[in-house]
């Protein structure tokens, strides 16, 4: 896809923008990343991109498209840039099973872990945090059960469904701290799956890029 103009990915060190980076790297779609601090997301320059003041947002000059919300962006990238279905499907039931897992990530895994972090560090509330820690374990159990007889969530290959869970899962220790479960022992299918994910070049690039973005903001005294 060397003839494409780079997509601009507007992001933040938090997990959601890195789902988009993973898809773009897996599909070899050129892109550049602009990282924002939390206060910058509420400033007029960013609100002109997304009035909700949240990342990710993409600008695709190839289609003259500005788009927000990670789920919508993932659908768009798969529709426009995965014609060979390298990380998606055309067949039934795989196409809709992938969407099912993507929905579970955006409506459950992400919000639950965000709530664990929020009630621990933003508005400390031990009771609320404990409730969401319990819910996070249920999410891991759902994933563990879904991987009980397979290496990947859908269709015998790594797909967007698998990729979407990595940014949050890779931050379990940071988000849950002392409440982090022993995934290897308690959720062995998830542990084996994540080790397979770590073998993918796009995943390693995402982890490195995220660490560099976090360090850069920290060096500037920002977050």
Strand and helix layout:
Elements: E1 7-11, H1 16-26, E2 31-35, H2 44-47, E3 57-60, E4 65-68, H3 70-81, H4 94-122, H5 126-146, H6 160-169, H7 172-176, H8 183-186, H9 188-198, H10 201-219
Parallel strand pairs: 1-2
Antiparallel strand pairs: 1-3, 3-4
Walk me through this protein's architecture.
This protein is 57% helix and 8% strand. The chain is α+β, with helices and mostly antiparallel strands and 223 residues long. The two termini are 34 Å apart.
Number of helices: 10
Integer average pLDDT: 95
- Percent in strands: 5-15%
Helix content: 55-70%
How far apart the termini lie comes to 34 Å
- Integer-rounded radius of gyration: 17 Å
Outline the biggest β-sheet.
Answer: 4 strands, mixed
Number of beta strands: 4
- Spatial order of strands in the largest sheet: 2-1-3-4
Task: Classify the secondary structure makeup into a structural class.
Answer: alpha+beta
* Poorly predicted ranges: none
Condensed summary:
By secondary structure, this protein is α+β, with helices and mostly antiparallel strands. 57% of the residues lie in helices and 8% in strands. It has a 4-stranded mixed sheet, covered by helices on one side.
């Amino acid at each position: 896809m060397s003839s494409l103009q780079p997509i601009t990915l507007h992001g933040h060190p938090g997990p959601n923008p890195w789902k988009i980076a993973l898809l773009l790297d897996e599909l070899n779609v050129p892109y550049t990343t602009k990282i924002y601090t939390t206060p910058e997301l509420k400033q007029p320059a960013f609100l002109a991109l997304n009035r909700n003041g949240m990342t990710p947002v993409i600008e695709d000059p190839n289609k003259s498209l500005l788009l927000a919300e990670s789920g919508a962006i993932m659908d768009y990238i798969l529709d426009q840039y995965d014609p060979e279905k390298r990380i998606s499907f055309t067949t039934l039931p795989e196409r809709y099973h992938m969407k099912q897992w993507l929905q579970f990530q955006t409506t459950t895994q992400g919000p639950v872990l965000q709530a664990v972090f929020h009630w621990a560090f933003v508005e400390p509330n031990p009771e609320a945090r404990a409730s969401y820690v319990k819910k996070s374990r249920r999410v891991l159990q759902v994933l563990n059960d879904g991987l009980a007889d397979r290496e990947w969530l859908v269709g015998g290959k790594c797909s967007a469904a698998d990729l979407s869970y990595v940014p949050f899962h890779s931050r379990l220790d940071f988000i849950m701290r002392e409440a982090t479960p022993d995934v290897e022992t308690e959720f062995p299918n998830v542990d084996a799956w994540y080790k397979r994910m770590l073998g993918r070049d796009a995943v390693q690039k995402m982890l490195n890029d995220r660490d560099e973005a976090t360090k850069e903001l920290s060096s500037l005294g920002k977050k």
